[in-house]
Task: structure prediction
Amino acid sequence: MCAASVEALFSLLTDRRKIRRSGRRTLDPGSGPPEEQLLSILRQALLLFSLDRFLVRDAGAIMKSGRILVTVRGEPVDDARHSAYREIKAVTAHALTVEEGPSGFTARFVLDV
Amino acid sequence: MRFEEISLSQVSETEWEIPRTGGMLVPGLVFASREIMEDIVRDQALRQVMNVAHLPGILFRSIGMPDIHWGYGFPIGGVAAMDVAGGVISPGGVGYDINCGVRLLRSNLEMATLRPRLPELLAALHREVPSGVGSTGTVRLTPPEMDKVLTGGSRWAVSRGNATGEDVEFTESGGRLPGADPDAVSDVAKRRGLDQLGTLGAGNHFLEIDEVEEVFFPEAAAAYGLFQGQAVFFVHSGSRGLGYQVCDDYLDVMAAYTRKHALNVPDRQLACAHIGSDEGRRYLSGLAAAANYAFANRQLLAHQVRETVERVLRLGPRDAGIRTVYDVGHNNAKFESHEVDGRRRDVLVHRKGATRAFPPGHPELPAAYRDVGQPVFIPGDMGRGSFVLAGAPGAMRLSFGSTCHGAGRRMSRTSARRSVRGKSVFAEMERRGVLVACTSRKTLSEEIPEAYKEVGAVVDVVDRAGIARKVARLRPLAVVKG
Result:
């Protein structure tokens, strides 16, 4: 769910199909309730773009010593190949929910654009 | 009128009261016509007005403007004044884009003569004024220079030759909020701001060439240097990534404070701290620093507009006459003195999507505007125009010297995009007589005129309520969107 949320975030920023998987980053949300871990992961993911101009093509999550770590693959922005759809100011805690259902977890988060 | 479980009573043609219930410390007061209220009740904004009324130290009313809509914690279009003694400061009451605001530049140019040059001028402005997602400015700050921006605001730009003394004089708070502390701004926030100074950004930020179409209040228009048929330039931007990061950083600090002190707030997004606490004071220092960054940002943008127009039209500064009418923010929290229940009090006024609107005679106004009131700019949508208002006496009685800030969205971004699928927004805008240059077509489709309330109806409310007075209507002719 954390990985899918990161991919959803970057789908709002650009066309992910045009991003190459040449670089890798790891996001560590620390400990806390699921909602706070998700918020932390998404904030870190947005900073990858806002601060380092790094775009995420895909993401995967692993459990390590009882903690979630999210690994993302992507590359720095190449203005010739990547067009930005919109500016995302922040990932907010507004109406943030993580719910477990029969087919897995569903996350809902609201962005300030 | 009742909406869900919210009881609303219309107390005048333009004022609605939400009575105190539960833990509300004050009633709610919303400025709206009946038609606008029917729009407002569609989202959770009124519930948020009630939530804000729970905050410790809130005085008089939790206030909503006619452009109010659902926001993060506080509604956008909300005003809340807190008693400095015992009251709280909340980042949710300011918003992510700290000191986002508008500058209006007037000129000696008449639109009738400028019109044939508009396509060329628009292309030059789009090229020269950095805009769009991730855009970088022509200035790359060093860390020591960043600290000077954070403490100096627009005045920093004077030292670089990018501003005149007049620019600073005609900027809210002289273009510099006191109390800014660069150490209260995180390294991440500073890094985000190093190359973004002098950039417009994206979303609803814009640069616009407008014509003064109609004048309603000739004395104020004359004081502001505005006349019918004149070409004017509108700049709407804020504190960019630096401001967003300051907000993000302090939301965590405030959440911890709220938990630690068991503050009774009905929504975690109203996380706050007492104004006099270490956390509160530190946020206020970071807020002032980010606000100063926003002042400097709009100053550099204005300077770039001035230089570009003069170069394209081959005019000297005296002939072009591009001068700042005023620069005013609409996302801030400021210490002010107001009369509450017959007593003068020091208060901290949160304005989130609301504009300061001081009336004639207010000592903080530049001498040239003291007889007519503070200029207020209300951008509408890019098709139907914008308004210049003047602060009016009712604002001091009813809204802590505040008025609205825009038209307010009535359509989500997704709905707006869907509604134009398969159509050319450029062609539609051109049919309406508006040239558009933009970096992102997606942004453009989200900003179509129909996505916003009719700004004229919003402005009529504040005019009739006596909190601001209509001065002039502006018609957009060329727009740069990020």
User: Anything to note?
Assistant: The longest helix of chain B spans residues 278-313. Chain B has a mean pLDDT of 94. The interface with chain A takes residues 72-73, 96-97, 132-134, 188, 191-192, 201-203, 241, 244-245, 247-248, 251, 268-269, 413, 440, 442-443, 446, 482 of chain B (CB under 8 Å).
